[in-house]
């Protein structure tokens, strides 16, 4: 230590010291001047501070990072402080060095303030799901020697997964699902393989290729669950995962993986749950993967083939250079490879000889007609789509903008400046035959409401290809995009704007239930399109009626995974008005809380109520920004909306309100702070209490 040489230099002469016995002579060199003793005492704390306890590290590094820059302290993290007994720090478990857990089941333990200062106590787990954490993951999480589990799912954490997290020597469970984490996956996470059994990163914005472990022979024998679904990972299938023979569950769905599925995946005989849907995987499935359901592979490149998919593998002779007609026909033959930045439609014209079918109108209704029918198929056009021709639709050019298990969505530009349309190509094997589809699409097309996206046309080709034609909305204009994928410069999502979106979607559903007598079937934030005036347009209603049972059940499985499925709904055939109400309740909670619904939002609200959590800890922080100077009725409106959402999510279907009742309640609680604010947000027609609401009298 630097103090000791300095103090020895100030030592008085030996002659000034009383004589010491011979055996005590070494003590003379240790006798210090009083000022030296003081300096030594001042230096001692510097030596002991290096060995900080886990509690001190938690307070100094972890809590500020998880808290973020919000103006108000997080209610859960606020309990982490030196004036609160350690047993009352929420979401944490502790243990002694001999692995005995700290018992907090006695009154004495729950009142003991000294435990937080005990350097022997070790942090064992952090469990704060759905706790409104809005900060980042601190690198210091990797410094806890006994930390075995981290559960931080369903929060609003941003930034990267820290590289140092791979240094946590005892970590065996890591769940960071349903946050807003971004950037690449750090290679260091595979350093945890000796102990890690459960790794869940579902529903973030992690991107890039999944990196292999640094060690070439890493097998991660302990890993049982690996969930990387619903991110933005790209590149080829991460083939090194096939060496993880201990896996029971593997989820890579809803990413951007491409290319073939490696044969070695078939050798993972312990794998029980596999989901590779909604990627761009291609080629022939290894035969042993037939033991999994078809839903595990839906939504990939059309050339993906083999059991359990219904697509049969056939030889391919090369690329097609035709327009949309050639593309959709080629899809059925598995002979087209999609380009990485476009839908693979060529700019050349389709030059085959066209023949008019004079009997094409024989099956037409009063509200639709055939624009054309020839060797390439048949185009039914509906109200608002009369300007479309078969040539224009089949020769349009564009790009992929979205993918689902049952369809691929394209932004298509019509030739000659004819505008932009949206095409939904129903995947091969997902759709019923043309004779069954025709009456369904006519019924869908008859639904006309200001808050519904209207069906403009329907194409079915000679070989079974099927296209739904809609007006185009940018994908960034979906409610999901506004809430979870916003750019920094985007418009603020104030409560009046969110309320307007919710009311528009509610009116569309009320119309479908009362005027059309049918359910929507797939209510979710990605199907709510929002225009520049924040008017909601509900898309894809009743499309599940076009699907074969297996594909319809894949839609249901996606709704379950994403949190929109009503508890009583076990088959799409049982879908009805009350299940739509449940999904709308989840949608309303999503609007209020700003969180992805996969995290069981109703449960998070119930926990907040039981723990008497402050309202600002439950609701989206951005939503509250505009209410700081608002009058009390604004907060009351939020509480009413939260109560309405929970009523819609009632576990018992009969206890849920009808959509007409939901519309009335939303209208009664519509924000109207000033006449100017309201008139700027709502048009005169929208301000009417009965606008867009069916007469249920």
UniProtKB/TrEMBL annotation:
Pfam families xrefs: LRR_1, LRR_8, PK_Tyr_Ser-Thr
Topology of this chain in the membrane: Single-pass membrane protein
Protein kinase domain mapped to chain residues: 395-686
Sorted UniProt keywords: Leucine-rich repeat, Membrane, Phosphoprotein, Receptor, Repeat, Signal, Transmembrane, Transmembrane helix
InterPro entries: Kinase-like_dom_sf (IPR011009), Leu-rich_rpt (IPR001611), LRR_dom_sf (IPR032675), PRK1-6/SRF4-like (IPR046959), Prot_kinase_dom (IPR000719), Ser-Thr/Tyr_kinase_cat_dom (IPR001245)
GO molecular function, one term: ATP binding
Matches recorded under SUPFAM superfamilies: L domain-like, Protein kinase-like (PK-like)
Region span, Disordered: 352-372, 666-697
Main location: membrane
Residues annotated as transmembrane: 323-346
Keyword Calcium: no
Keyword Transmembrane helix in record: yes
A GO CC annotation given for this chain: membrane
Subcellular compartments: Membrane
Family according to the record: Belongs to the protein kinase superfamily.
Protein name: Protein kinase domain-containing protein
